[in-house]
């Protein structure tokens, strides 16, 4: 796992604190390698909100853990703490004040991690693995939104063991994003549902997918008035769709990742918090920056020897973090067996 600092020098990471050292030494951009990465594939990354002084990065992994690092001004990282689930951690997010981290797992539970006390407690339960988790801060309520493979979207007051609301979905939740007052959920079978979160959450619109293959990631973008206005949707075939909810600009699709021999899946999309440009990462082992309004590519990284599975910007956009690990994109099925 590495940090790309747009305004700082590049350097190497440090030694292990969690009893683990990084084994991936291929670092063509000489980016800062995070000290003591997880033992297995990284599923999610998130930087702390601007209300918390400094920069803290959390990462969840298939090793069942979520870890927190402090990113210092010189770019070096200091491991701070970690918590465990009994299954892979698929998603994680921060509370708006930066005091808590919320985690979603294949063990069908979500937890709230109080960073001040370093204690974690279960706050949600589903009938299937929880794929997405988001903190919602509305004028009249605050809650956690969880999307699961049990085909439900649930909203939780962290003080109660029962959900405030449960919304049925036609299929399993594959990815989701929240920028108040909008939520977007992409499901299996290429489903897309937009929810409005004002007053209380409710379904706003179902959208026919602009992509022809399985959805992999989604990220909401804002207009110049800082209001959510649309989303970018990535798929397993290397394409990204830019979709406006009420289109003043035309929707379009662009081919994001391709090599000489095949397409590669887009694993994550993240929008720059200041400029509105977007980053995409995928199974080809590269990250790219794009200007969605000008429809141009701004930069593509050197190629790593593993896929890039997750990425995020910090709150002011001067640090970009990405995770390099296996993503199951090279699994193949033998369609016919030879005669033995």
From TrEMBL:
Polar residues compositional bias, start-end: 17-26
GO annotation, cellular component aspect: nuclear envelope; spindle pole
Pfam families for this protein: WD40
Keyword Repeat on entry: yes
Span list, region Disordered: 15-35
InterPro entries per UniProt: WD40/YVTN_repeat-like_dom_sf, WD40_PAC1, WD40_repeat_CS, WD40_repeat_dom_sf, WD40_rpt
BP-aspect Gene Ontology terms: cell division
Compartment annotation: Cytoplasm, Cytoskeleton, Spindle pole; Nucleus
Listed Gene3D superfamilies: YVTN repeat-like/Quinoprotein amine dehydrogenase
Family assignment from sequence similarity: Belongs to the WD repeat rae1 family.
PANTHER family in alphabetical order: MRNA EXPORT FACTOR AND BUB3
Protein name: Rae1 protein homolog
């Amino acid at each position: 796992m590495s940090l790309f600092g747009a305004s700082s020098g590049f350097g190497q990471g440090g030694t292990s604190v969690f009893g683990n050292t990084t084994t991936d030494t291929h670092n063509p951009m000489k980016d800062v390698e995070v000290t003591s990465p997880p033992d297995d594939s990284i599923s999610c990354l998130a930087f702390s909100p601007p209300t918390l002084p400094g920069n803290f990065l959390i990462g969840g992994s298939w090793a069942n853990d979520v870890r927190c690092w402090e990113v210092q001004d010189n770019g070096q990282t200091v491991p701070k703490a970690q918590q465990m689930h009994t299954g892979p951690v698929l998603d994680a997010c921060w509370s708006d004040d930066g005091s808590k981290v919320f985690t979603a797992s294949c063990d069908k539970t979500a937890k709230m991690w109080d960073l001040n006390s370093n204690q974690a407690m279960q706050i949600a339960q589903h009938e299937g693995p929880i794929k997405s988790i988001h903190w919602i801060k509305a004028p009249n309520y605050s809650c956690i939104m969880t999307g699961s493979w049990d085909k439900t979207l649930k909203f939780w007051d962290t003080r109660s063991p029962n959900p405030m609301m449960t919304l049925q979905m036609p299929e399993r939740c594959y990815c989701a994003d929240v920028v108040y007052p909008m939520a977007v959920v992409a499901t299996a079978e290429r489903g897309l549902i937009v929810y409005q979160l004002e007053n209380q959450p409710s379904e706003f619109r179902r959208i026919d997918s602009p992509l022809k293959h399985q959805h992999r990631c989604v990220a909401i973008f804002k207009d110049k008035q800082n209001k959510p206005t649309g989303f970018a949707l990535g798929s397993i075939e290397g394409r990204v769709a830019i979709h406006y909810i009420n289109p003043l600009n035309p929707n379009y699709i662009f081919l994001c990742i391709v090599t000489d021999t095949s397409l590669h899946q887009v694993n994550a999309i993240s929008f720059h918090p200041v400029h509105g440009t977007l980053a995409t990462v995928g199974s080809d082992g590269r990250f790219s920056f794009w200007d969605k309004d000008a429809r141009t590519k701004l930069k593509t990284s050197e190629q790593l020897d593993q896929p890039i599975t997750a990425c995020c910007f910090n709150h002011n956009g001067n640090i970009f973090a990405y995770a390099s690990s296996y993503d199951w994109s090279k699994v193949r099925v033998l369609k016919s067996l030879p005669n033995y």
